[in-house]
């Protein structure tokens, strides 16, 4: 069966890599993809927001399954476009992707169905939002309602920071219409964890849990990024807590979406905070695979990813075989100097063969081929280097050893990925 994967990041590289292991996979196409994906898939020069062109391509090639990676096309209804043409597609429809596309929708849904999350108020009026903010203690969290490339959330530790964030969202409109509403919510203390699940309606099949490192510098300092590194499993978090999160948050949310007439089919990604007393609460839901969570979760999948996607599309996800290996995985992101602010592109990358020889998986995020065919940087996050091992310590050593052999000008990586799991 020929497959079309939509997206261009490390997440999509990991998805293509996992699909390529399936005996049922024919040609894998990826639109638009990147240099690394191009080594195992045929790259298609169509952008992720060109829905009609993508659908025409899928029809022409008689694609058996489309898999959508990124949030923006999902929120804009790409799945509905494929479904209207009867092209099998794995991902949530627009009305279900709304759980990521609107934080006010997500918060109201959780409140209505009594699903644990931070207390909040929502506002579409700046003066009222400001008055509320001034009546609350710090720290406090301010969130633009809509998608904001992962930058719409401010955890404010001072009043001044909080007011600046509110003004930039609602008055200066730095995120455009995404900021016409805001959520102001209680600050939650604790450990973060991500649980991604394959979901079809009320059927929820959780994947292995993972932890991301969002800030750009060691010790969780500096601005938030798309994610600087991940690891899975989480040996320092009890299975009972993960189980509680699945039973009290993820399953009830899938059920609530069905009850609301918005059945979710795809990957439902729960961002959770585990309070010091061990109780999990929801921070956010995403309607897609995480990046770079996917890079540590899929290498641990022992079953056939294509079979799982097809089961979800055919309504048999409850019977699908989904097995996880006991191996640990650690992903270290190599980023361009300057990221998450501006950064140069087109810089030559060296040492990938050495990294592969060190036994690591290298997933490309922002890479391209230069004029002479050489590998060059082409994004903020350039590569995700994944080490696998019997323990997190072993996987981490492997990832860092391989990461050390890769070089490009200005390369930046965190040195403390998975450190929390080692204590
Ligand atoms: P999001 O873009 O919703 O993933 O939020 C970005 C990050 O902000 C999260 O990963 C958390 O680290 C932090 N965050 C969001 N909401 C809260 C909250 N209520 N309390 C504490 N931290 C939060
Ligand atoms: N790594 C966080 C995300 O994909 O949203």
Summarize the structure.
The chain has 423 residues and is α+β, with helices and mostly antiparallel strands. It has helices at residues 10-20, 51-60, 71-75, 78-84, 94-101, 103-112, 126-134, 159-170, 239-259, 293-297, 305-314, 352-357, 392-404; strands at residues 3-7, 28-32, 42-43, 65-68, 89-90, 120-123, 140-144, 153-156, 182-186, 191-200, 203-206, 211-212, 215-217, 221-224, 229-232, 265-274, 280-286, 328-335, 361-364, 367-369, 375-377, 381-389.
Overall SS class: alpha+beta
What's the CATH topology name of the largest domain? D-amino Acid Aminotransferase, Chain A, domain 1
- Count up the helices: 13
Q: Please bin the fraction of helical residues.
A: 25-40%
Give the end-to-end Cα distance, rounded to a whole number of Å: 46 Å
Could you give a short account of the major beta sheet? 5 strands, parallel
Which strand order spans the largest sheet, edge to edge or round the barrel? 3-2-1-4-5
Number of domains: 4
Give the second-level CATH assignment, the architecture of the largest domain: 2-Layer Sandwich
Query: Looking at this structure, what is the CATH superfamily of the largest domain?
Result: ATP-grasp fold, B domain
């Amino acid at each position: 069966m020929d497959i079309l994967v939509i997206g261009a990041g490390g997440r999509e590289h990991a998805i293509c890599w996992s699909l390529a292991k399936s005996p049922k996979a024919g040609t894998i196409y990826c639109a638009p993809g990147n240099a690394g994906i191009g080594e195992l898939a045929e790259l298609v020069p169509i952008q992720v927001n060109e829905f009609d062109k993508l659908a025409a391509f899928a029809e022409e090639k008689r694609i058996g399954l489309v898999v959508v990676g990124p949030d923006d096309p999902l929120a804009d209804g790409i799945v509905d476009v494929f479904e209207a043409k009867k092209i099998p597609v794995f991902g949530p429809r627009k009305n279900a992707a709304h759980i990521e596309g609107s934080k006010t929708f997500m918060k109201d849904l959780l409140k209505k169905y009594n699903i644990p999350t931070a207390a909040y108020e929502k506002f579409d009026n700046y003066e009222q939002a400001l008055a509320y903010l001034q009546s609350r203690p710090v720290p406090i969290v301010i969130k633009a309602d809509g998608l904001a490339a992962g930058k719409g959330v401010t955890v404010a530790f001072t009043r001044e920071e909080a007011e600046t964030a509110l003004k930039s969202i609602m008055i200066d409109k730095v995120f455009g219409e995404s900021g016409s509403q805001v959520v102001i919510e209680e600050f939650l203390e604790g450990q973060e964890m991500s649980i991604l699940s394959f979901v079809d309606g009320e059927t929820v099949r959780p994947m292995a849990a993972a932890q991301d490192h969002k800030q750009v510098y060691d010790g969780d300092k500096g601005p938030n990024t798309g994610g600087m590194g991940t690891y899975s499993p989480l040996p320092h978090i009890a299975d009972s807590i993960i189980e509680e999160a699945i039973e009290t948050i993820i399953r009830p949310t899938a059920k609530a979406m069905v009850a609301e007439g918005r059945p979710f089919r795809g990957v439902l990604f729960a961002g959770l905070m585990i309070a010091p007393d061990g109780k999990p609460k929801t921070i956010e839901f995403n309607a897609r695979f995480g990046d770079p969570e996917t890079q540590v979760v899929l290498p641990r999948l022992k079953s056939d990813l294509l079979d799982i996607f097809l089961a979800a599309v055919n309504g048999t996800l409850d019977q699908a075989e989904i097995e996880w290996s006991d191996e640990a995985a650690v992903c270290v992101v190599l980023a361009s100097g300057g990221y998450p602010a501006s950064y140069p592109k087109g810089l030559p990358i060296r040492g990938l063969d050495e990294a592969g020889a060190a036994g690591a998986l290298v997933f490309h995020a922002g890479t391209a081929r230069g004029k002479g065919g050489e590998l060059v940087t082409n994004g903020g996050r350039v590569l995700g280097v994944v080490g696998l091992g019997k323990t997190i310590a072993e996987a981490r050593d492997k990832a860092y050893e391989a990461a050390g052999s890769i070089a490009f000008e200005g390369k930046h990586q965190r040195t403390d990925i998975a450190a929390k799991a080692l204590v």
